[in-house]
Amino acid sequence: MATDKPFDRNALEQLINKRFFYAPAFGIYGGVAGLYDYGPTGCALQANILALWRNHFVLEEEMLELDTTIMTPHDVLKTSGHVDKFADWMCKDLKNGEIFRADHLVEAVLEARLQGDKDARFAQGHVIEKEVDKDDTKEPVAKKTNKKKVRVVAVALDAEVKQEYEEILAKIDNYTGPELGAIMHKYTIKSPETGNDLSEPEEFNLMFQSSIGPTGQLKGYLRPETAQGQFLNFKKLLEFNNDKMPFASASIGRSFRNEISPRSGLLRVRYVSIAFNTCIPNELVICLTILFAHSFASHSNSEFTMAEIEHFVDPLNKDHVRFDDVKDVVLNLLPASVQQAGKTDITPMTIDEAVAKGIVDNKTLGYFLARIYLFLTKLGIKKDRLRFRQHMPNEMAHYACDCWDAEIQSSYVRRRFLLICRDFFFASLGWIECVGCADRSAYDLTVHSNRTKEKLVVREQLPEPKVVERWQLEINKKVFGPKYKKQAKVLEEQLLAFSEQDLERHARELEQNDKFVVTVDGEQVEITRNEVTVQKVTVTEHGNEYALLFVCNLSYNLAHHPISPCCAVREYTPNVIEPSFGIGRILYSLIEHVWWAREDDENRNVLSFPAIVAPFKCALLPLSGHTSFVPIVRDLSYKLRRLNISSRTDDSKAAIGRRYSRNDELGIPFALTIDFQTVQDGTVTLRERDTTKQIRQSVEVVLQLLRDLSDETITWTSVLEKYPLFVAQEVDEQ
């Protein structure tokens, strides 16, 4: 099934549209970019992906599934930090107002310049001249380009500049807005279509604002994630679980993000690059790259299906009872330290070794990374095109203390340009974030508890005192109150809600810089050593003498939960490990990974979905429209339904070979052919999609085989070992 031929995006798009996996929404009205409808095949595929997800995670891990509301009040998302911090950096053309996502713009330009350098070195400095007839140029390079002829010169980059570009690209996700602005100034990055100057990068909030109720006075948002509904139900979930820890909740549902990103099918991709078969100047490469990228950019109204898990765990014990089950799973890892060094080298490593070396923070996080890998590969994602990339500090979500993305390599754009040379192709290979796995520490439960005064804690019996070390933040109120005045209360609540990881990080910053920065209501505030102290202290948690109540740090405990004699109980706020799955991205990446064409005919497309997720498990193909086949097809269809085997009947007048090909394009793994021999002796042929090999057995035998093959309890190889191949022609009608 492997092929060395270049990836043909257009052919895949035609197949997806032809077999109605998904298509642009509102098509007869011209469509709305970024919005898609799933067809019958896409719906079935998504349903099967979600069913496998439920089996793999919810049932296997005994998770507690929720279905929470899409509308979320402003106060909830203000408390969670999404109102102030859930944003991307955007910049715009200062003259015409066109908008770009800053990191994507920088990335595309530098990638294009590096490609231009590569082409220039290949040409060994030779000057190549081409003439372009403006009448033939259907997609102009820029609005100001009116010249009829273009002189093309390829020039290599200075070695030092080239290295700088490569290091910037390796760390592109780690830059702040001001840092992106500095890069744009240093390397003279302009608006690609007009050449105009660009604004400094500004934050653009990604949430859809709305209002709740007929008066419109209750401000709200369409949820950007399903997680908040799970956190707010923590108390009920803990009670439902008989107060036992650890445990996990799970939720599947729609989320909404108003993004500035390339619109490329179901993907919101991380980067674009451009490759050419001839040498052209760097400036033109940039224009071509960004002109196309920008045609897919602007405000992309994204709604998508998410499947999220919130695993609640004791912050003092992040081991996992089933870690040994996955410790030997090998993952392709790209740690933050490698990226910060300006490299993208992947290191294959067992998850046991990664945890032991401290690359992955703890066993629970490592356990879920391994389980994510097993889920994606079971779907059909290719192992050599799957990696786990650790977030760098500046790209970390505001709620996370560590985060890894499962990224799938995909080709997402392939387009012909009618510019200068008729043989240009826009090709892109990108690593697509499809699953994020974050250690959210105790952030969410803590901030919601602070805001509502509702204790979101776990109570644990203590047989004897425990001596533990914790980070402690103390506020110098004599300085703090007078300096921050009305802002002091909000700022104090945020400081006292810091997790252990936050406090440890800020302690290092105070040691190195005598200050650290926090964001309050969208404003950055510098906290100095004179205003707070952060240090590690030893605490004895007494059992029978009293309960030590703590949430994240000692200051909050002493201020809000005085110690008093009581039973042997410890109260704590659990940390959260969160795997978050983008189902649309996974679905598209899966289609690409399983797509191929038969060697004898490149027009015969095949989608080799594993049987467990294939949209339909079996095709019913009567050899012709003969009336004797009708009751047999009806009976087989009924029996397949009773066995929960989805099927699709193709009784069209097309030749049987053409119908086989049609169902191969739908990814249907098996086909039952009903012919005149079936009428005589009750046998049918069973064909497998990838090998095209067939066996012929009785209906009862074939149905049992189909059930086992669909459940993946047996393989087609084992079937061929047991039953002879069928190669004879069907019996003709007498």
UniProtKB/TrEMBL annotation:
Predominant cellular place of this UniProt entry's protein:
cytoplasm
Pfam family name, one:
HGTP_anticodon
Localisation per UniProt entry? Cytoplasm
InterPro entries, from UniProt?
Answer: aa-tRNA-synth_II/BPL/LPL, Anticodon-bd, Anticodon-bd_dom_sf, Gly-tRNA_synthase/POLG2, GlyRS-like_core, tRNA-synt_gly
According to the entry, every stretch annotated as the Anticodon-binding domain falls at 617-708
Give the matching SUPFAM superfamilies: Class II aaRS ABD-related, Class II aaRS and biotin synthetases
Q: Cellular component per GO?
A: mitochondrion
Q: Name one GO molecular function term.
A: ATP binding
UniProt keyword annotations, A-Z = Aminoacyl-tRNA synthetase, ATP-binding, Cytoplasm, Ligase, Nucleotide-binding, Protein biosynthesis
Q: Which family does it belong to?
A: Belongs to the class-II aminoacyl-tRNA synthetase family.
- Annotated protein name in UniProt: Glycyl-tRNA synthetase
Report the source organism. Jimgerdemannia flammicorona
